[in-house]
Amino acid sequence: MKSGHPYKLNPVVDGQPPEYPFTKLEDVPEGYTWDDISYVIGGYNWKARFIDKDGYIITGDENATTQYNYYNPDLDMGNNWVGYHAGEENKPYDCGTCHTTAYSPEGNQDGLPGLIGTWSEPGIQCEECHGPGSAHAEYPMSFAMNVDRDSAACGDCHFRGVPEEVDAKGGLIKHHEQYEELFQSKHLTISCVDCHDPHDGVIQLRKTGEQTTRTQCENCHFQEAQAQKSEKHASSSDVQCISCHMPRVTKSALGDPEKFTGDIRTHLMAIDPNQIEQFNEDGTQSLSQLGLNFACRGCHVEGGSAEPMTDEELQAMANDYHTAPPAVEEGTAEDTNSN
Description:
Layout: E1 9-11, E2 37-42, E3 47-52, E4 56-57, E5 67-69, E6 80-82, E7 91-92, H1 96-99, E8 100-101, E9 121-122, H2 126-130, H3 133-138, H4 151-155, E10 168-169, E11 172-174, H5 178-183, H6 192-195, H7 203-207, H8 217-220, H9 222-226, H10 231-235, H11 241-245, E12 250-251, H12 292-295, H13 311-318, H14 333-338
Parallel strand pairs: 11-12
Antiparallel strand pairs: 1-2, 2-3, 3-5, 4-7, 5-6, 8-9, 10-11
């Protein structure tokens, strides 16, 4: 499996850090050694948090920095330690529902008081989605393998609150809300697996230069792909459909709201060409469609990769962006002049 699912929770064995496909986690929070750590939460790509020998998430005192963020080249940020619930004592690990396989809320894994519930395997392994594979192998007629292609199955974990609301904080969408984002648009009629292979994920494929999705936007939206108002966009290999329609509005570990960039692409997709802002007045909820701040100003901002543009300029460009110009009939004056 190439996705990050198996690496949601990683045991520390014999005082040795977990191994990951393409990242290397060397350090632990200040004042600790690897012998003091029972599990690492994450560590696959964005960040890592640590669980002590009593099963509690390490938070430290009010000035402690106990979460490690990997370096993000797109943001030129990271490779640093930040606070996580600093000053909160004995923070239990109660994330097993979405971080482990065959989770039960009863008991304490490994007999550690801070670990709420028990599980058969750490991380999201095959049997969490497909059922008891070992039993199926031995008794294939009695135990069927589960293959659920419904987006709601992914939404069991890629989900934060209620599907009608996309939670936000600090100028960015909170992470693991892909199902709520998809719920805002007509893309809800398709399944996550139409575009994604959950066994391959995205990150490892991107690092090896492979196609990260099963299909391309252009396969369905072929007319929009052919009609683009900006010639620069149409001719640039750096500008893809997802650059505007799936900008990085979401933050897992790192983000720069002033440059309208987080570290995960959103699944909102639809752009309102007359909407500038992305969030409600108090910044706690994202609007259902993308505003031009994120659809455009991830590039068109001071210090960005493209020339800054005013609200009015962005709206003028965004309106009718994918509307094809009227066809010129053969033999008309325009057709004659063009020759």
